[in-house]
Amino acid sequence: MADNDGSRLHLVWYTATELQERQLQSATEVTPFLTRDGVTWLHVQGLTDPATIEAVGEAFGLHPLALEDVLSGQQRSKAEEYDGQDFVVAYLVHEDAGHALQYTRLSLFVGPNYVLSLLGGDEDLLEPVRQRLRTPRAAVRQHGVDHLMHSLIDLVVDSYFPVLEDFGEYLEFVQDETLLRQRPEALVAIQHAKRELLGLRRAVWPLREILNVLMRDDNNTVTPPVRHYLRDCYDHVVMLIDTIETYREMASDLMDAYMSAVSNRLNSVMKILTVIATLFMPLTFIVGVYGMNFRTDVSRWNMPELTWRYGYPLCWAVMIVTVIGMLLYFRKLGWIGGGDVPCVEDDGIVCGHRERMLAARKGTQTRS
């Protein structure tokens, strides 16, 4: 443990044949390792203790401006060079228990024989890289600090793929809810999706610039073999950007589709109400005429049906036949009946996609 519970120092020193790993009590314990052959990786977990961060900065000779960027609350992803040190800021992403996206800032300082990583939060997300280092024949053990830097950046890039994969299923579910049910919750889900996609774009887009800086020929830290690995990371970043842009367009289209679906649904409702009103028009005319009650004893033309034995049932028969005839005529015109059958029923049965939709529904209900 470090001097403060808010910052933990984890040291890994390795060569092709040897590896040492330990927790440090203070930043001064890393100094002897910096003069040894091999690669020294010091990871600082938690940035809530400025004194520990400043002590680490002094041990590694960090530039004051770079140290200020580390301690600042918000910092854009970037790659810079300070006195022979490559300084990289990137953001890891993961989903919490409620399926909300959490961004964790990772700061990297890469020198001739060391890598210093500083990660916010309490969860150590760099353990997969350590597991690879513990394998004696791992490729990262056979190279220098640039390969370790690539492994860390690659971990950052790879963290976005499962998030986007889950997000794609989420958008598919929102699309079904938008087009088939037009629930008001779908509009909230679309806005939520657009907001999260904007956050993902802000986090991923600068990674392309970071890799361009690291792959430059004048960068002495990165050797030519590792540049090939960084180009692979660059391709993955471009793939992520394309996927995010596709999802953003899909979310925007879903908004238009939702408004169109609601408008069509309103038109359908108005059509039914118009049909009902039209059906009652002749009925209202008939009962209105017979409601005048002209006396038959004055003239034989004054409502003779009022004196018939079956005048009242005959009036009802005329009205019923009129309604049935109009309904048949409206159906022949296609105004009623023969509409689209909804794919998703109220009981959750899905035409051909029940299992997939139910799984997506469960994740979306938790997300919302």
Note down, in words, how this protein is organized.
The protein has 368 residues and is an alpha+beta fold. Among the domains are: 1-139, 2-Layer Sandwich (Beta Polymerase, domain 2); 268-367, no CATH class. 55% of the residues lie in helices and 14% in strands. It has 10 helices and 7 strands. The chain has a 7-stranded mixed sheet with strand order 2-1-3-7-6-5-4. A hairpin with a 2-residue loop joins strand 4 and strand 5. The chain is rod-shaped.
CATH architecture of the domain at 1-139: 2-Layer Sandwich
On the 0 to 100 scale, the average pLDDT is 81
CATH C-level class of the domain at 1-139 is Alpha Beta
The span between the termini is 38 Å
The H/E string reads: EEHEHHEEEEHHHHHHH
Low-confidence stretches are: 339-361, 363-368
Strand content: 5-15%
Q: What Rg, in angstroms, do the CA atoms define?
A: 35 Å
* Percent helix range: 40-55%
Report the major sheet: 7 strands, mixed
Strand order of the largest sheet: 2-1-3-7-6-5-4
Number of strands: 7
Query: How would you classify the helix and strand content by structural class?
Result: alpha+beta
Query: What is the H level of CATH, i.e. the homologous superfamily of the domain at 1-139?
Result: CorA soluble domain-like
Note the overall shape: rod-shaped
Provide a count of the helices: 10
Would you tell me which CATH topology of the domain at 1-139 applies?
A: Beta Polymerase, domain 2
